[in-house]
Amino acid sequence: MANEAKPAQQRIDQFFSGPGGRADNWRDLVEAAKVWSKGGDRAPYDAALSALSVTEEFHGYPGLRLMAALKEAAAAGDAATSQMLAARIAQALQTKSFRQYAGDWSTQDEASGDVPDLLPPTLGQSAARRPYFETLIVTGVPAGNWPGLLAEWRKLRRPVDAFIYEPVVVGSLEDAFCAAMLNPNIAAVVINEGFGLRSRHDAPVLRAMTGAMGLGDESDASALRLAHILKRIRPELDLYLMSNRDVEELAGNPEADVVRRVFYSVEDILELHLSILEGVQDRFDTPFFDNLKKYAQRPIGTFHALPIARGKSVFKSDWIRDMGEFYGLNLFLAESSATTGGLDSMLEPTGNIKKAQEKAARALGADRVYFVTNGTSTSNKMAVQALLGPGDIAIVDRNCHKSHHYGMVLAGAQPLYVEAFPMTEYSMYGAVPLKTIKQALLNAKADGRLDRVKMIDLTNCTFDGHIYNTRRVMEECLAIKPDLIFLWDEAWFGFARFSPFLRRRTAMGAANEIEAWMRDPKSVAAYEKQQAELGKNPSDEVLLKTRLIPDPRQIRLRVYQTNSTHKSMSAIRQGSMLAVKDIEFHTVEAQFKEAVFTHASTSPNQQLIASLDVSRRQMELEGYGLVANAMEIAFAIRNAVNTNPLISRYFRVLGADAMVPREYRQSGFTDYLAAGTNWASALKSLNDDEFCLDPTRMTLVCGTAGYDGTSFKGLLASRYNIQVNKTSRNSVLIQSNINNTRSDVAHLVRVLAEIAGEIDRGLAKGGATARVDFDMRVNSLMKDVPDLPNFSHFHAAYRGDAGTKTNEGDIRGGFYSAYDAAGCQYIRLNDPEIDRRLKSGPDLVSANFVIPYPPGFPIMVPGQVITQETIDFMRKLDVKEIHGYDAAEGLKLVRTEALARMGKPKAAAPKLKAAS
């Protein structure tokens, strides 16, 4: 954030300044110590240490003792000791060696003994390491007694413990909140009674938030209130309450369901210690992966159809042994087509896959989760096929992934396409405005067809980072039809569950909020108040302008979320999850199972299933910190590109103000890097705005450097070993993820600087001619861009039962028209016949999907009438990859005669005489 990474600020509520910002602050302290030790100014060191001391209170390492030693050295004027100690702590934090190396916790400089490993902890080492985490202790004990309290907790450690943890003590609700936000190592929280409300540190933004939550005085600082706050921001945390009052009554309170266990505070805390370890163990356990490891170590005789299992055919071969040497023995030992002997069936899970999916459901906030091993394309088709049938209408974003369109074909459902707002300058679409979706529902209602509208099918977030206000979309649509099903394709957004900022914009996050709102008695009052204001028969115009409130008594909450786990978590490619929160799931469970049978492989890859299991473990235990780091990486890239004088001359990362039109940013939010922006203003945008921009997805404009997106992507890959994902006519999409480091940022920035420098030198050497050519190229890419075509309509032959106001069609019929070779024809794109028919008829009707990459969405679907704007767009396209179109053959069209035959009424089938 623009004003959140300054180390001199003694503020505890700068939550976008995450792990990287903390490392920078320690680096600045070390540099200041070096200057001081060489006789320079001491003041910068004192200021840096003062700033660090505030937020370091919320971390287990370096802890109270080491921070006290730093302060004592500074107070004694000992620059050498200050430098030595600061450098040792900074290195331990950077390498994370403090998690395993006891010497890092000492105040002495140990020249001998073990040396902290600069490589990741598992590289080149065979000894098992105990995972490290931290436990937050919230207490009313005076701060002077905290060292003794910490010592008592450390005495509980035992060599047999599977994990090791360090306690972190705070004495107020605000400090507990800040610790949970700032310290990603916290995995458990122990809440004692008697703590205060306010932090003793500067936190004006936090004060505004606590005021909005109704926390006005010390009496509001209850243990249960804090438990609910912490569970909301970090639902993965295990919470434990310690009470010296009537614990039986507290444990029986329904409001205490967010707490893992309640303890009587005067009892031995060993049970609490064991409970903390058990809670982390519950998240650490990976039922399928654990069993697969055990299976791989057993002597198995394989007499099933998988020769590669156990690896004998590989390692005994002179010809393919190199594959075994490359992948390692365990991969083959863990291969099997068996579903017994400790393994399980993906099609009918009853054992460890079932348990793994239940843990994934907990992690994602869903009722149930399905593992899918052939990508989210399959997850989407499974959901569409299970939830829709022939003749059902689904409101679908026309620019969604092709799997949704094909799912409609398979189900025989009729898509009612709605259009996203266009971003013509960058040859991409945004997301579908809520007003457009509501209008489609109201049109169906006016046509008497609302009962056939079964589903809203949208992409969240879009390829380019547009995030819906998922709760608002679902609530307003449910106000019109309370039993709608929502399918949210969150292929690119699975990580968002583990960010307290982005979670509210996920399907499951919003569904849980709606569920909680429905239980609140105030929800009925809010609905009835609005109904009284609207009157009995409000016009469509009024309904479109009003933020509609659904009747909580009528809602049937039915939400499905698909995510490409491999796109944002540590799963192997094609690993996907389908999350369900559907109160009516029992009515579709049988057909859902049939959809699984239809699409899931009967030979799923064991390693894929294991990676889904392990990726869930990782995100539950460290996902919060990993996502915070991914966001911080993105902010660093945005800042480095847009503020560098050389790079920004030719490249820029688009801000929210360029990616989301003003009318959809009701809060006035402009960009994460805008002056004056902090986490509170970003949070207001995430709460209120119709669309937000995922900070981890960055549209880098390269057209201003004279490169089209495809060429620039190729240049980065072939010359600089940098891989990016999507391209547009004049941009490439850069995505930060949990795998990225600051070194990756430095490499990208260095490459962009090198390319910008080459452009500079080329223009200087080429003179006026080079400048003219360059400007013409930029103008062609940035100004002379084709208008994006909207979906037109289905031909009447595919709209036999359509309404007058709605625009759905029989896409399945259109799709199978292409199977009739005699009923189709090809016309080349530049043939004058195209222009003649556009002007005089008959209609040009597409026989298949036509999907150019970029932009990657169907500009034609089967049965669609092709219009002038679509032809103009295709003729201006300069991309090499267009699925469903062969330039040598031309457009595949349904012949007019075939359309006429489809329009004729079919003869009734002869009645069969009943058997006697």
From TrEMBL:
One of its GO terms (molecular function) is transaminase activity. Its cofactor is pyridoxal 5'-phosphate. Gene3D superfamilies: Molybdopterin biosynthesis moea protein, domain 2 (3.90.105.10), Type I PLP-dependent aspartate aminotransferase-like (Major domain) (3.40.640.10). The keyword Transferase applies. SUPFAM superfamilies: PLP-dependent transferases. It holds the Pfam family OKR_DC_1. Keywords: Aminotransferase, Transferase. The keyword Transferase applies. Signal peptide: none annotated. Residues 286-515, 558-735 form the Orn/Lys/Arg decarboxylases family 1 pyridoxal-P attachment site domain. PANTHER family: AMINO ACID AMINOTRANSFERASE, BLR3474 PROTEIN. This is Arginine decarboxylase.
